[in-house]
Amino acid sequence: xxxxxxxxxPNGWKxxxxxxxxxxxxxxxxxxxxxxxxxNPEFVKISPFRKIPVIIDxxxxxxxxxxxxxxxxxxxxxxxxxxxxxxxxxxxxxxAQMGTIGPMIGQHHQFHHYNxxxxxxxxxxxxxxxxxxxxxxxxxxxESKFLAGSDYTIADIATWPWMARHxxxxxxxxxxxxxxxxxxxxxxxxxxVKGFSFMDKNAKIPKP
Length: 208
Ligand SMILES: N[C@@H](CCC(=O)N[C@@H](CS)C(=O)NCC(=O)O)C(=O)O
Prior knowledge:
The protein is an alpha+beta fold. The chain has helices at 10-22, 41-44, 67-78, 87-114, 120-143, 154-163, 166-169, 177-187, 190-196; strands spanning 2-6, 26-30, 54-57, 62-65. α1 packs across α6 (154-163) and α4 packs antiparallel against α5. 34% of the residues are buried.
């Protein structure tokens, strides 16, 4: 049994989606970030940077923090969405999510959605970077069905939740034909629907 420490955010959804896709039994322990529960000493023992998501695999007695590392761990363990022969390309798209897509779009959320009007520089900078990322993903998905090739992989599972915040971005997902096609196809998967709403049963995936 997997214990998932999470909150209702894109990084949290990644792991809910993966666990639903691989059909593992899991229990969710909510970490309320608005109450600073990520700083609780018990949680800090399993999350050195005080962030969700974290999993404890009670079957194998393993703790894993960092969503990319968790996806690799679960992909390896289940033998799903992380095919050995495709790892070089999957790893690149997964790391692009971890190092660029998530952190940059996260800043766009901070400046444009949560704190608009506070910093013209920050708003413009991250709006521009987020729009660039939409274009770059669209270009990739013009030539490839999924991010790492013809199969759905942990790279898509890591990236999709960030696009699921497209309404906050004000970039216009529907204008990016290939990115929209990919987004909508993944939105139809049962694992995505369940993983998106595992912390909020009323959550509905926003369509472009
Ligand atoms: N690189 C980390 C980022 C995780 C992350 O930023 N988690 C946020 C919520 S989406 C968090 O826990 N923030 C609380 C904090 O930083 O205090 C991962 O992918 O797991």
